[in-house]
Amino acid sequence: MAQVVLGMATSHGPMLSTPASDWGQRIPADMANQAHSYRGNTYTFDELIALRKDDDIAGQVTPSVWEAKHSRCQLALQQLADTWESARPDVAIIFGNDQMELFSDENIPAFAAYVGETIYNKEYDAGKMANLPIGIPISVPGHIPPGGAEYSGCPDLASHIVQSLGKDAFDVSVLRGFPQHHATIPHAFGFVYRQLMRDRVIPSVPLFINTFYAPNQPTASRCRHFGQAVLHAVKSWPEDLRIALIASGGLSHFVIDEALDKVVLDALKSGQVDAFDAIDESFYQSGSSEIKNWIPLAAAMAELQWPARIVDYVPCYRSDAGTGNAMGFVCWVPEGSDG
């Protein structure tokens, strides 16, 4: 009988894989964005500066603060990776999202699972690197190792999860391979393989949630039930496997909202995961939508009655408009475990 031995959630934003001295590379893109999503509305960069003038953000965007926060994030990632190693899982099930990497306007499923034998994490060629948005190329090694890599999927378990989800009223798309235009796993998953598994990658089942793209974004409630259904599928798998459940993404970005993040972290600590349903769907937009990758994991952990341990929460501002990425690092281990 399969056994869940670990739950883990991490941000995966490019700032985590970028030296602190280069965090400002993304500011020109922030300034050009005419529709920053923040608390249910959209704003220009200048409008955000005016709106948040009393938030004392200027003191958060100095080189010394950037260095200190970057160091905290790296320490938190090390702690998660150490916990991962101690748990000794056999298989990882990863909740993540796609940002027009594998998917495109022709096909954006609400939920999908990778059921193939091999997971590719290929290096980008020079042309693709040249076309990446400003400030992103420097972060690519954070999710793709030099020379690229191939990892093992877990097709039997993945297929079982899809079939079990169907019985729980979730019709999930399946991927058996990668499209030619992007023959590599999205960064949400590559970050986990590199940073948490430290390139010692075990077989995994990538599960995709369409957090970003209207009109078929699953609601918070739907994501919560999805996590419970995934847990039920795992519990019904007959093989004796140690399974880790991982969420990749979040917290609030590309405009940081510490009040929103507090609601999220409080729900994790209390186990009252229906609190996610009370957050207005208009808050789950842009990068903050990736909180929905955490909700299925949180729901599964609440059903197991495992306590959440907040390893760290680091709001990494890069501009006085409040742009940046709030980084969260959380783990769940069974009571009595030393993880």
UniProtKB/TrEMBL annotation:
Gene3D superfamilies xref list:
LigB-like
Keywords from the UniProt entry: Dioxygenase, Oxidoreductase
Q: Which InterPro entries does the record associate with it? A: 3MGA_Dioxygenase, Xdiol_dOase_suB
CDD domains assigned to the protein according to its UniProt record, in alphabetical order: 3MGA_Dioxygenase (cd07366)
Q: Does the keyword Oxidoreductase apply?
A: yes
Q: Which residue ranges run through the membrane?
A: none
Report the GO molecular function annotations: ferrous iron binding; oxidoreductase activity, acting on single donors with incorporation of molecular oxygen, incorporation of two atoms of oxygen
Q: Where is the Extradiol ring-cleavage dioxygenase class III enzyme subunit B domain?
A: 77-307
Q: What residue ranges carry the coiled-coil annotation?
A: none
Name the record gives this protein: 3-O-methylgallate 3,4-dioxygenase
Q: Which organism is it from?
A: Eoetvoesiella caeni
Give the organism's phylogenetic lineage.
Answer: Bacteria, Pseudomonadati, Pseudomonadota, Betaproteobacteria, Burkholderiales
